[in-house]
Amino acid sequence: MFKKIIPLIDKLKKGLFQALLYGLLWMWIFVLFVKEYNPNFEVIDNSVYILGYFLSVIGIYITRGIAGMIQTWVEEDMQTQRN
Amino acid sequence: MRKYSIHIGIIVLIMMILLGCGKKVVNTKQAGHHITQRVVNYIRKTTRRISTELRKQDSLVIEQRRLKNEVYVLATEPSWNIKSYVPDKQPFNLVSGMVLGEYDVNLKDASARNPLATWAGLNGEYLSQVQGNNSSAEVFIHLGTHGDFGRSKQQEKIYKDFWDNDKLGSKLSQNLKRVLDTLTVTGIVIDFENLPQNTGKKYMSFLEELNYDFPNHTLILKLPAKDKNKNFSTEVLTGLKGIIDRFIVKAYEFQEGKSPEPIAPISKINSCIQGYNDLGIPFESMLLEIPYYGWVWEGNNLDEVRPFLAHDTLMSLSNREYIRAETEDGVYFEREGKSYWFDDEETLAKKYRDIVLAKKLGGIHIRGLGYHMYKPTSKNSLWYPIDKAFGLNPPKLVYPAIAFLLMFVVAGIVLSVVWYWKVRNELAKNRWQFAFYMIGLILTSIVMACCLIVVIPPIGTAGSSLLLVLFPFLRRIKSMTNRWL
């Protein structure tokens, strides 16, 4: 179990610092977007910041993951064509 | 161990979050458990709070709610209610405009018949309460007569003398100007009752003069439930376009002295507003008048002593034990040979839903707002149907959250081309892969736009017009989701 988790964490660790740092910027954008677009969200307490930060960090990994996934597909496709 | 420290840290964090999602940790009274327990409980609390925030639609209490922009809720507070007003009672935030004070015209000399009623709006406590709850609330004054000036036969002559006498008209304007300036009133609600036959055109020219004298004030005209004397023809109502901003349609008390029935039956309201619409008044400029009182019947006649009773009085008399009419547009109860008919929160909700919202009317006009006082502890209030029908529903936070995550998906698709040369090469060479790539990008963008369109309130729709033009089907999705929300 632990052996399976470690490679996953290694991947996560790769961009962890960047994700945590850029997450702050995206969190600010999320909160700004939510509050600017609909003033009714003003009543929401500080948990919206935690939610924004959580979504931002996850989102940064999603961007990285999607881009990496497309690259892998392309590489596999090229490999198949060569064979 | 140092090598795996970050791994252990992340695993501990994930475990704490998972634990936090579970049941509350009880105090085990064991050494070292106290801090862990507090941390886990804090995480649990935050996770629960975020989850609630994502799902909840509206956490605002009625005193903090706002009205939709497209609906206008006008309320008239009779002068005798203003005097006895108890502050901090009514949620004026759900009112767009208030009619305070009545200029009851003396048709013989254009003065006010009851100066105290005219200056009732000067009650600073009431006005500050209204504007404190709702800074954008407009203030109106009621101008008109009750049609009870002089004997019934003389009524026609008195009216005609008033319309024909220019001096009286200018005197009325002068008096009115003084009142409007002192009270800083934004508009006038005009209601001359029991107009004699064929005086519609004279009434129209009087309204034109009033518009000429007060060009910066909003003019609202009240129309009778039944135009017995045929004063409001298509010609008259078409001529009033550009002069009158809104029309109040008195859609109750359709019959007198026939048999007991709901004070405002839905079928009669529908035919009344349809009749005025056929004469040329658009639905969106109509305000449906709702009485906050009911009527009392003795046999087949209206009670001679007290034909009308305030809503709160009727509720306390009935002890909330009343029968709903089969048509569901009124409730009644019987006491000592008299039957009392009025509206409760459910019948009003039905009228707002089936008439005002279904026909897309401009809004409502509440007659006698103070006849029902809001009690925060009560589960039943006439304010709730207003809030439910015309209140602004903030969207759930889950939609912008999904849109936000989808934005990262779109970014990932785009950045794969920017970051990796192999992807660029392959897309340039293989057009099928390019087509597949573009379809994926467009579909994800559409889903993201759908999530975004839901969160945009009506006030922000103007800014998203380009989006709605590009994807016209989003309008339908927006209206559908607004209904679900």
- Count of β-strands of chain B: 14
How far the N terminus sits from the C terminus of chain B, by CA atoms, comes to 52 Å
Total helix count of chain B? Answer: 18
What is the count of DSSP helices of chain A, taking H or I runs of 4+ residues?
A: 3
Kindly describe this structure:
The complex is a heterodimer of chains A (83) and B (485). Chain A is an all-alpha fold and 83 residues long. Helix content of chain A is 86%, strand content 0%. In chain A, helix 2 packs across helix 3 (47-82). Chain B has 485 residues and is an alpha/beta fold. In chain B, 46% of the residues lie in helices and 15% in strands. Chain B has 18 helices and 14 strands. Chain B has helices at residues 5-20, 33-55, 79-83, 115-118, 124-133, 152-164, 166-183, 200-213, 234-239, 266-278, 311-318, 345-357, 383-390, 398-419, 421-429, 431-455, 465-470, 473-484, and strands spanning 72-77, 97-104, 138-145, 187-192, 218-223, 246-250, 286-291, 293-298, 301-302, 308-310, 323-324, 331-335, 338-342, 363-367. Chain A binds chain B through residues 5-6, 9, 12-13, 16, 30, 33-34, 37-41, 43-45, 47-48, 50-51, 54-55, 58-60, 62-71, 74-75, 77-78, and chain B through 4, 6-7, 10-11, 46, 49-50, 53-54, 58-60, 64, 392, 394-395, 397, 400-401, 404-405, 407-409, 411-413, 415-416, 419-420, 422-423, 426, 433, 437, 455-457, 460.
Topology:
The complex is a heterodimer of chains A (83) and B (485).
Chain A: H1 2-14, H2 16-37, H3 47-82
Helix pairs in contact in A: 2-3
Chain B: H1 5-20, H2 33-55, E1 72-77, H3 79-83, E2 97-104, H4 115-118, H5 124-133, E3 138-145, H6 152-164, H7 166-183, E4 187-192, H8 200-213, E5 218-223, H9 234-239, E6 246-250, H10 266-278, E7 286-291, E8 293-298, E9 301-302, E10 308-310, H11 311-318, E11 323-324, E12 331-335, E13 338-342, H12 345-357, E14 363-367, H13 383-390, H14 398-419, H15 421-429, H16 431-455, H17 465-470, H18 473-484
Parallel strand pairs in B: 1-2, 1-14, 2-3, 3-4, 4-5, 5-6, 6-7, 7-14
Antiparallel strand pairs in B: 8-9, 8-10, 8-13, 11-12, 12-13
